[in-house]
Amino acid sequence: MIVHMLRFSFKETATEADREHVLAVMRRTASVESVTFSTVGQNLDDTDGFTHAYCVGIADLPSLRRYMHDPVHLAGDPEIMPHLARLAIGPDLSDDMTPTLAREILALHEEKVALYPEWAAELGPLLAARPAA
To answer: Taking the CA of residue 60 as centre, how many other CA atoms within 13 Å lie in the half-sphere pointing to its CB?
Structure first.
C-alpha cells in the first residue's frame, strides 16, 4: 500500500463556496477506482500553517500510475489549484519495503510533469510559496 498525503492552505481570497467546491472535487478524485481508501478534511497539525489535508491509499505502483492519469484526477486539478495558497506533498509512506520504491514513485511524477507541463507550471509556485514572516 502506498499512502499519498497532501497538506494545503487556501488563498485568503477563496470564499467558503470556493473551499467547499475544492474539497468536493478532491473527494471526487479520491473516489476513483485506483484508490483503496481516502480522507479529505482538516489538517490537525497546524505547525506549518497548512489548514487542510488530503490522503489516499493506493495498492501498488500500477494503481498509482492509473490514479495519476485518471481523467477525473486530471480534470480536478485545474479546479483546485487556483484556490490554493500553499501545498506540501507528503510525507508519503508505504508498507512495501522495496528499496527503489521512492525512486519509482518519483519517476511516475516526472513522467506526469513531462506529459502535462502546464499542470507542472501551475503546481510549482504552490510548492515554492511560503507564509509571510
So the answer is: 2
Kindly give the confidence (pLDDT) of every residue in the chain, 133 residues in length, as a single tens digit, with 9 standing for 90 and above.
999 999 999 999 999 999 999 999 999 999 999 999 999 999 998 778 999 999 999 999 999 999 999 999 999 999 999 999 999 999 999 999 999 999 999 999 999 999 999 999 999 999 955 555 4
Residue 30 phi, psi (nearest 5)? -70, -5
CA 72 → CA 37, 67, 86, distances in Å?
16, 9, 22
Cell triple for 101: 520504491
SS (H, E, C) the chain: CEEEEEEEEECCCCCHHHHHHHHHHHHHHCCCCCEEEEEEEECCCHHHCCCEEEEEEECCHHHHHHHHHCHHHHHHHHHHHHHEEEEEECCCEECCCCCCHHHHHHHHHHHHHHHCHHHHHHHHHHHHCCCCC
